[in-house]
Amino acid sequence: MQVQVVDYLAEDAPQRFVESLRNTGFGVLINHPIKKELVTSIYNNWQTFFNSENKNDYAFDPIKQDGFFSAQVSETAKGHLKKDIKEYFHIYPWGKIPASLKDEILNYYQLTSKLASELLDWVEQYSPADIAKNYSEPLSKMIVDTPNTLLRVLHYPPIKGDEELGAIRAAAHEDINLLTILPAANEPGLQVQQQDGQWLDVPSDFGNLIINVGDMLQEASDGYFPSTSHRVVNPDGADGHKSRISLPLFLHPRSEVVLSDKHTQASYLLERLKELGVKV
Hints:
alpha+beta, 6 helices, Jelly Rolls, single chain, about 280 residues
């Protein structure tokens, strides 16, 4: 089954969206509340930031994990040996943010978090009773007053040809969190892996909002909602000379929220950050 494109305003949107998450780990919304103009402005403003040397003044805090991560300290996806071809900035409302970019990006953070809460209600509404009973509390309540939801501003630089052999913009991986909310990037490249192992382009027309299941929702739902592998492939030809900006919001519960008999949010996150090599 392919990733479904669902009209947010349609009467059957919640059911169709959750069906897509169940079958593919992904869903795509159109006519949603996140305005294209806001996303475009963020793309442009953060492209300027990544093009400047000022980014190095905001080097990430290895304990708090906020701030700028250069290409040299970028992630290596679980099970891979080569670093992704990317740099990024971690946004938390309590963390370091360039003053000139702060109001706009926090407005986006709040708007998207509000929508994400509604989507979690959809997920719970259409979870079978034997699955919903596994949730230690209502899914949308898990994120109330959470300090852990992360907005990552990703910059994939132009491909120069001297990259490490076999490295791509984002190697195949699954996300750690409950849901990831992602406006379509300013360049294509996002793919999701189907059950037969084949890779499928995610519908990424500008204005689409792409949502995928993370490992924490998979854990909380006892595997009912699959955290599906996805990647960002390198562009071909002239497109390789273009930067790519991406704005994933990684929706995280509060640290003490119980996901399963094995894990809280905090224990699960620590385990995965160690696997990614960004925390010791």
